[in-house]
Amino acid sequence: IRHLLSGADLDAATATQILDTAAEMATVAGREVKKLPALRGRTVVNLFYEDSTRTRISFEAAAKRLSADVINFSAKGSSVAKGESLKDTALTLQAMGADAVVVRHPASGAPHRLANWVDGSVVNAGDGTHEHPTQALLDAYTMRSRLGRVAGLHVAIVGDVLHSRVARSNVLLLSTLGAKVTLVGPPTLIPVDWAARAGAAAPSLSLGGPGEGGAAAAFAPGTDVSYDLDAVLPNVDVVMMLRVQRERMNDSYFPSAREYARRYGLDGPRLRRLPEHAIVMHPGPMNRGMEITPEAADSPRSTIVEQVANGVSVRMAVLYLLLGGINR
Ligand code: CP
């Protein structure tokens, strides 16, 4: 592959190659010399039009550990504020010799447009409500390292699925790798077409009607939808909580925070409904006290901090395979 734009770009063999390479990269972090010369002379541009902590810093750390030159571009404080377009910004960066552009953008599909304009590789670091493929890869890596495999796992993805690029990329990648996914949330926050494809009849709850909006994505056959978190928890290996993205919501269909936490928040009693071996994931940033309580987020079952560490190894693997490995 030349670009990584979507979870759908990855077949099982390529995804497994990335996870295996990430495991090799993880050993670098434990060494005295933490740098590899693999991307010496290459330039990686981090092009961020939307806020980020984990993704931006981990791509920067990943590129530096591979000895690439890194240019960090934030739309805030740049000529974007003067009205410069994404295309002109991209061509400017191209002229400075970018071999790879890692892009986060509020518009779904922006990385796909960018891929038509630049010669280098484009990596989607999160586009609107559409996709976040490297998050799905680091999540799969974390499942594999904690539970030994991805194939055959039952993963519940819980909460604001409608606005979640993490959910869309995970549904695609997890199904490619042979896991079963159940999407859980209030009817307002499950994409209406996905609920229909899964054959889930929305219950008449106080939480409102079906979820309209968000970005379309390929529906992975076999994906289930449930509105009952308590019924799903005893049957899963992984529960992945999603951030409630209030900034993307219209108040008219936003459930009250108290009602949301009562029905869909992961708290102590719900944690105890999980099987003994099950793990708790969250991509971050978290709304503590809303979709997850501190008791759940900080429990020994939680992999939230590990996910961040694994993100560096997985992003090293992605940059290495796009720029230095299989393609060049
Ligand atoms: N998980 C994630 O994408 O976090 P950031 O928004 O901090 O990058």
Description of the structure:
The structure is a single chain. With 328 residues, the protein is α/β, with parallel strands linked by helices. It has 2 domains: 7-128 and 308-324, 3-Layer(aba) Sandwich (Rossmann fold), CATH 3.40.50; 133-307, Rossmann fold (3-Layer(aba) Sandwich). It is built from 12 helices and 9 strands. The chain has helices spanning 12-29, 54-65, 86-95, 110-117, 133-147, 165-176, 192-197, 229-232, 257-264, 268-271, 294-297, 304-324, and strands spanning 43-48, 69-74, 100-105, 121-127, 154-158, 180-184, 224-226, 238-241, 279-281. It has a 5-stranded parallel beta sheet with strand order 7-6-5-8-9, with helices on one face. A 4-stranded parallel beta sheet has the order 2-1-3-4, with helices on both faces. α1 (12-29) packs across α5 (133-147), α1 (12-29) packs across α12 and α5 crosses α6 (165-176). The radius of gyration is 19 Å and the shape is globular. Residues 204-210 have low confidence and may be disordered. Bound molecules: phosphoric acid mono(formamide)ester. Phosphoric acid mono(formamide)ester is lined by residues 52-55, 126, 135, 283-285.
